[in-house]
Amino acid sequence: MLRVCSAHLHPVAHEVLKRIQDLLVLSSPDNGYPHGLISIDDQMFLYEAAAVLIMSTGLPQDKQLAMMKSLMTPVLERFESSLAMLRTVQSDAIQQQLAEFIHNLIALGSRTSKAFSTHQTMQLCGCTECFTEALSVFLKVLNVPVHRELLHSAVRQFLHRMIVCLGEDLLPFIPVAVSHLLKDCGQRDLQEFIPLFNQLIAKFKAAIQPFVSQIFMPVVQSIFSFLGSEIDKCDLFAEKERQSLQKSYFSFVNVLIMNSFSQVIADQGILKLLSICLSVCLS
Asked: How far is CA 88 from CA 32, 78, 94, 95, 175, in A?
């Protein structure tokens, strides 16, 4: 509703932002702030609304950037402090609480980015700096060894949003992000990574082709490894997971071909090319 009415919000944007400030205060396992005041889903909506309001103020770009930083800085500060605690705390229960909180902080960043789109990009609005800083901070969580699935899912979602609205300013972060997301990844991690990779290819095309060429075969070999592993035929869940990974693999190959990346496949050498062709034809 706010996005639809954003053109008419200019006269009241400052007042509405002022009135919701108390509801933007972050609660966490360690600050004693009452958790029942507002749900995390409601708070995510409010962060999205606040970002839309900032973009509706009609202020110069430098003022809008300052306001967006004011919105995001508490999130990044709490992220840093919570991440430091997660690296040192030994209690499984506290680790779980902190991981969930960090996941929610990254999700707040994703929701805040919904004030932008393919047409109203961060670059056009002068807010690139705010979100490249957030990205560099959020990527630190990828080398945390505990609760990887939960934390990586939040980063993947944030990256999906950055592909849409950060544009080519995202490219310098891609090698680090992808290498960490693929390191020691499980079958589910790999399956959920492929849609992100497909989006990167479709968005950036030639700009990302050299990097795709480097990691294409390691990704394919990981997929083959999971597809070739033995599973109990009575395990319906495992069978469904394998079928989902197989579909993801086919979508990956299709996206490469549809976006003129066929040369990436051809450059892998005749034996590897043959194994890829056979995998598609025989499955």
From this structure: 20, 16, 11, 9, 27
How many angstroms separate the CA atoms of 45 and 106, rounded?
14
Tokens of 227: 């597809």
Report pTM.
0.88
The DSSP annotation for 24-50 comes to GPPP-TTT---GGGS-HHHHHHHHHHH
How do residues 232-273 score in pLDDT, each as one tens digit? 778 788 888 888 998 998 899 899 989 988 888 777 765 565
Exposed e or buried b per residue across 164-198, where buried means at least 16 C-beta atoms within 10 angstroms of its C-beta: bbbbebbeebbeebbebbbeebebebbbbbbebbb
In order of 51, 226, 228, 274, the CA distances from 191 in angstroms are 32, 10, 15, 23
CA distance 76 to 62: 20
In angstroms, rounded to a whole number, what is the distance separating the alpha carbons of residues 17 and 53? 7
DSSP letter for 172, please. Answer: G
Q: Name the residue among 278, 256, 258 with its Cα closest to residue 267.
A: 256
User: For 2-49, what is each residue's pLDDT tens digit?
Assistant: 454 555 455 566 777 888 888 888 876 655 444 556 788 999 999 999
Structure tokens at 131: 């979100």
